[in-house]
Amino acid sequence: MKRLDEIFTVTYGVNLELCYLTIDDSEDAINYVSRTKSKNGVSARVSRMENVKPNPGKTISVALTGSVLEAFYQEEEYYSGRDIAYLTPIKDMDMWTMIQYCTIIRYNQYKYSYGRGANRTIGKLFIPDLDEIKTFPKYNQLPDISQIPDYFLNEGYNKACWYLDNIDKDEFEKKYAKPAINKRISLNDRKWDYFKLNKLFDIKKGKRLTKADQTMGDTPFIGATAINNGVTGYIGQEPMHEGNTISLTYNGSIGEAFYQEVPFWASDDVNVLYLKGRELNPHLALFFCQILRLEGELHSYARKWNLEHMNDTKIKLPIDKDGEPDYDFMEQYIKSLSFSGNIG
């Protein structure tokens, strides 16, 4: 690990206000990058100014306030707004390596907030050295879709168009959006207090199983992913963990929590939470999953949520009159939300 300013030269951007610039869609226009987290940081295309030198291309733009540490690779030269720095690599880097650094820089966002910018500290961030980055999977190692027939690619688009043209939004919501209980519940109806995870759950580790050792079957394999309820495939090995539990990643997509209804195998990037003293159910589990995801935002590539740290982690929960976690309230709250009537 090295300080960021040992890997990049940190330079403050040109600091232009968009309201004083001319919006321009012509080929000669230039990107205007602001502190937004969308569209690669580009807020508009504007006319060039004769006396203003743009930030150079093939650099990384980083927001120092606002959406702090939103980092994007900028291929072309660009203007920038307030509190934008650009990072120029000290050693030669290709585009994919710089995109990887953008992700790593974003992983440090938990250290900052609306009132705590990175103006003075961005250069002090510790990030992997270039030699470490070279061992990471490359983003350009993507599957080749050039040989997939067009009718397969068009099928999803055509289905989406059909749904937009034929499904009545009001009818859809009337049929599916009902809550499980017709009662409004506010999270402010209860006092909240902190509890250690190991007082609430038995936390068990997953186990490494390489692709080469996996066989075909029906056992869900839970990996370090943020999608598909954590399921990255199905294997022939017997399940390691019981259903009616919560899977929680501590590496990769850190803090992704999912309710697992059926028995499964968890990879070595995943811990499994067994609730103590009460039987878990889908509604209660969903409440816990959201709390755990919020806690997971405090962790990153450089600050993994390992088992020891996870056991000592405290989460804040609504409490009953005895000062204990109010599980009934948590369950009822989820049941009061729209679409909860579809939960088993």
TrEMBL record:
GO-annotated biological processes: DNA restriction-modification system
Domain Type I restriction modification DNA specificity: 191-336
UniProtKB keywords: DNA-binding, Restriction system
Claim: DNA-binding is one of the keywords in the record: yes
GO MF annotations in UniProt: DNA binding
InterPro entries the UniProt entry points to: Restrct_endonuc_typeI_TRD, Restrct_endonuc_typeI_TRD_sf
SUPFAM superfamilies referenced in this protein's UniProt entry, alphabetically: DNA methylase specificity domain
Family, similarity comment: Belongs to the type-I restriction system S methylase family.
Protein name (database record): Type I restriction modification DNA specificity domain-containing protein
Organism in which the protein naturally occurs: Roseburia hominis (strain DSM 16839 / JCM 17582 / NCIMB 14029 / A2-183)
